[in-house]
Design brief:
The structure holds 2 protein chains of 2 kinds. Chain A is an alpha+beta fold. Helices cover 18% and strands 35% of the residues of chain A. Chain A has a single domain, classed as RNA polymerase II/Efflux pump adaptor protein, barrel-sandwich hybrid domain (OB fold (Dihydrolipoamide Acetyltransferase, E2P), Beta Barrel). By secondary structure, chain B is of the alpha/beta class. Helices cover 35% and strands 15% of the residues of chain B. Chain B is globular and about 80 Å long. Classes of the chains: A alpha+beta, B alpha/beta.
Chain lengths: 126, 431
């Protein structure tokens, strides 16, 4: 599976990509495939303050409902509204159009504490 | 079987059970009876009951002696339907699921809400689950409950909240209804839910929309406990800007049966669908495109979501939900309106007759549905006992729950009460 190397990962399968002083968060292809058909994504309100390792939402598929976590601290500046009507975007394009939230982070360096693509691959075995 | 498990005898089988916890001697129970004797014995025991249909019942306080059309018993007792809960392998029981789906649809219609579940245990747990929904979906930590909410419901709610980091506060009554000024003073940005009951325990109709407005201005949810029969006449919770509506379904074709089992009705606005407790039946199509029913949104439930489930409730009151469905479908909107109107008009007749005989309502300016609170000149328990001797259950001694009202009697009137019965009650209460 092609794993983008331009971003960092959590063992709980969220990717974090830096875009200037904001961080975009979504979930990996592996997580989306494991969940199977995604039916609902519950995302936070803009302005919500998140701690590193904090829960920012919930993702529901026909099989399971799971929590979503952010690896960095920050304030939510944008959420992907398209997922409200088209949650299947997460299945089809998890690393692109299936993004979930954007964070204005407190400390960009926190990103470097997360897993690299290679480490995520090694730790999760995918 | 002993041979199959390699045990020489019953003693050998039980050898592993420590001797000090083994029962010595036989159980202290009577000897077995044959079927004929057993039936005679049970008939004797049942004969010691005082069934409500052998009395004239003005007792209410949350459970009411309404008329139940024969079709309710007939359909609900059919073998294909007669089961207590949602069956395992639920989708194999399409008939049950269709009945629950129709139940949910009718609960939405009578409550004016968007989505209903397939029922909970009874009104009290439904209200407690509504408080949990409010706490989970707002992330706040305070629950405000009107003193007009059924005292048993409040106790169940307190038990539910007792091990959570949550504050429970009661809003006092003023002149027989929730003191909205006190509510406004007590409500904080940390309030998750404002819970009111209308008609309230004293029988009075609350200004629910005002309570909902106060709740919403503080970012809290408004929960209303309602009487499902009263909506034949009164505005529905959904018309009053309520977020979650809960009720005990007993008035909908359920006998009084020793105070339970009853039926919890739970419905909410669409935005809370995924936070709802209990089971939900959905309509779908099978692989050949035919209409079919399934349990839906199960990923929020305990068997999948474990400790993060929205609720511990994994079942429903299947048989009683079925009874309520048959009742609601039989009555229809016009029938519910007629039954509600009869209840109210008869209660109004009784209130007038009592007033003429010198027995006044405690709060004469308050609007009521089918229950009136009257002040008696003589000790309430004495009058209740005298009425009982005359075959009349006169009402509920409300002083048992509200000390300041210990000179009052709460009298419920249903469509079953006749003018003659009410006139007899007036005589007893005015004497």
């Amino acid at each position: 599976m092609e794993l983008p190397t331009d971003r960092r990962y959590l063992i709980t399968h969220e990717w974090h990509k830096s875009e200037g002083d904001t961080i975009v968060i979504g979930i990996t292809q592996f997580a989306a495939d494991e969940l199977t058909d995604i039916t609902f994504v519950d995302l936070p309100k803009i302005g919500t303050i998140l701690k590193a390792g904090g829960r920012f939402g919930e993702i529901e598929s026909v099989k399971a409902t799971s929590d979503l976590y952010s690896g960095v601290a920050g304030t939510v500046t944008a959420v992907n509204d398209k997922l409200a009507t088209e949650p299947g975007l997460v299945n089809r394009d998890p690393f692109g159009q299936g993004w979930m939230i954007k964070l204005k982070v407190v400390n960009v360096a926190e990103l470097n504490l997360l897993l690299s693509a290679a480490d995520y691959s090694k730790k999760t075995g995918h | 079987m002993l041979a199959a498990v390699g045990a020489g005898g019953i003693e050998d089988l039980l050898r592993q059970v420590p001797a000090n916890i083994r029962l010595k001697g036989s159980l202290s129970i009577p000897a077995a009876m044959d079927e004929l004797s057993l039936r005679r014995h049970l008939t004797d025991l049942a004969g010691q009951n005082h069934p409500v249909d052998q009395k004239v019942c003005f007792l209410g306080a949350g459970a009411y002696d309404h008329f139940i059309p024969a079709v309710v018993d007939f359909l609900a007792m059919k073998g294909e339907f007669l089961t207590a809960y949602t069956p395992y392998q639920a989708e194999a029981s399409q008939g049950s699921l269709q009945a629950f789906f129709e139940f949910q649809t009718m609960v939405c219609q009578i409550s004016g809400m968007d989505v209903a579940n397939a029922s909970l245990y009874e009104g009290a747990t439904a209200m407690a689950e509504a408080a949990l929904l409010a706490l989970h979906s707002t992330g706040k930590r305070q629950v405000l409950v009107s003193g007009g909410v059924h005292p048993h419901y409040r106790r169940v709610l307190k038990t539910y909240l007792s091990d959570l980091p949550v504050t429970y506060r009661e809003i006092p009554l003023a002149d027989g209804v929730t003191d909205l000024a006190a509510l406004e003073k007590t409500i904080t940005p940390d309030t998750a839910a404002v819970i009111v009951q209308s008609p309230n325990f004293l029988g009075h109709i609350e200004v629910v929309a005002a309570a909902a407005k106060l709740a919403h201005s503080a970012g809290a949810l408004c929960v209303q406990a309602y009487n499902p029969l009263s909506v034949g006449l009164l505005k529905r919770p959904g018309d009053l800007d309520v977020d979650v509506a809960v009720a005990d379904g007993q008035p909908l074709g359920l006998p009084l049966q020793f105070g339970g089992p009853y039926l919890g009705l739970f419905s909410a606005r669409n935005s809370f669908m995924r936070k709802m407790p209990g089971r939900l039946v959905g309509q779908t199509v099978d692989q050949e495109g035919r209409r079919a029913f399934c349990l839906t949104l199960q990923t929020r439930e305990q068997h999948i979501r474990r400790e993060k489930a929205t609720s511990n409730v994994c079942t429903n009151q299947g048989l009683l939900a079925l009874r309520a469905s048959v009742y609601m479908a039989t009555m229809g909107p016009a029938g519910l309106r007629q039954a509600a109107t009869l209840c109210h008009d008869k209660a109004a007749y009784l209130a007038d007759r009592l007033a003429a005989a010198g027995v006044q309502r405690r709060y004469p300016n308050r609007a009521f549905f089918n229950e009136i609170l009257v002040r008696l000149a003589r000790p309430v328990s004495q009058i209740v006992q005298r009425a009982s001797a005359a075959g009349i259950l006169a009402g509920y001694e409300i002083g048992r729950e509200y000390q300041e009202l210990s000179d009052c009697l709460l009298v419920a009137v249903t469509e079953k009460r006749t003018r003659g019965e009410m006139d007899r009650l007036v005589e007893v209460l005015a004497s």
